[in-house]
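Hi again,

Forgot to attach this to my earlier email, sorry! This is the prediction with pyridoxal-5'-phosphate bound. I've pasted everything inline since the attachment limit keeps bouncing my files.
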Amino acid sequence: MKMPYEKPIVTKLQTGWMNKYGRTFAYARKVRTEIDGVGIDDLVGQFGSPLFVYSERTLRRLYRQMHSAFSTRYPNVVFGWSYKTNYLGAICALMHQLGSWAEVVSAMEYQKARALGVPGEKIVFNGPHKPRAALERAVAEGATINVDHLDEIYDLEKVSLQLGRPIHIGLRLNLDAGIYPQWSRFGFNLESGQALEAAKRIKNGGKLRVHGLHCHLGTYLMETAPYQRQVEKLVGFATDLERTFGFALEYLDLGGGFPSKSRLKGVYLPPEVALPSMDEYAETIAQALSKTLPPGEFPRLILEAGRALVDEAGYLIATVGAAKRLADGTRAYVVDAGVNLLFTSYWYKFNIELDREVGGMNEHSVVYGPLCMNIDALDEGVALPPLARGTRLILSPVGAYNQTQSMQFIEYRPAAVLVGERGQVDVIREAEDLSDITRRERVPTRFASPPQTGP
Ligand SMILES: Cc1ncc(COP(=O)(O)O)c(C=O)c1O
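Structure tokens for the complex follow:
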């Protein structure tokens, strides 16, 4: 039998790679024909491509694992679902059904949480921009407000004056826990004395009481030790606050930052090897709390995990529209989803799976999105066999920060579906059409007539 001809490929060895297969061969050629038992063909046939697909089973599993890791080690744990990570209504509603509060960072997110039925007392309101009206609403509804800066303190003092009663607030702190670059933009700095000054100002104002501390160290923290330093510093500061100003602490909010099993660009080891388990994060935090808190005191521990709870539950199905060669001979594919839908592809290298077995040699390839912009590359180096038009790529994990940052730049945003535990598929966001783009636009009547023919 005559064998098909396969073009040989010569791949340049690059220094710095750990072996001759290098990083780019890590994800070659895995096949995925279904998500939680629902066929990729069926999903695309019914809802089109590209398509965001979320797994309810995975969402529930991630929540259960993280919740049990913490609640078995500390008696007073509350999760605040980080809306910005993914505020699709269905995802938020599921998180709330599982027991999460809402953690919001804008008036828009606050409104969304309330519209989903979350009571104010179960909303943690963070963020550097809280308009006065939003603050008034949050105070009236009993939300937990973590103050970002002095101007917010002045605003809240005015609200307190209006209401004729003191207001309880949390202070957001930034501190050195060994994370670089340090997120110093948000809240009051601890080490410089700024946080203590703020507390003094609050005490002297006489209208606000500090009843909690908040600190979010950053995202995708690959070690547990920063959380230990964070707890030590926060509890130390809480002790100072109580002693100096008589502010008693009701909660410690450690923010989020727990990594998902996503793969940061430039990290060689797979996430399963490179990252501590959720139990290790929980153990570090629980140990630090038990060493630093006074015996018998268990202030509410608020955790605002985002990516760790949703990233692995999200997939994006995309379709190859064209195969081409770049001027230097590199194989390139154009697919129907790009950075317009997967903003985080600038930092993370997604798993790319194929919906079918494909013969032929793996070749170093570039995967481009549909945007007519040079920046639109989903993967600049992945080993792929020769893909025919129509082949589906299943990219994962994409559940965190992609849906919320997706944009109507050049293309519509696609549908999102949730695969339920019994294999039922629900549309949780419809695909957009032109009306979504034009709904809020207004064309002045003098431009309304169609273009004239002729010169
Ligand atoms: C205040 C706050 N809390 C929670 C989160 C969620 O972070 P992560 O997705 O890393 O858990 C963020 C994300 O930036 C944040 O800014």
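The chain has two domains: 23-53+312-433, 56-310. The chain is about 30% helix and 20% strand.

That should be everything now.

G.
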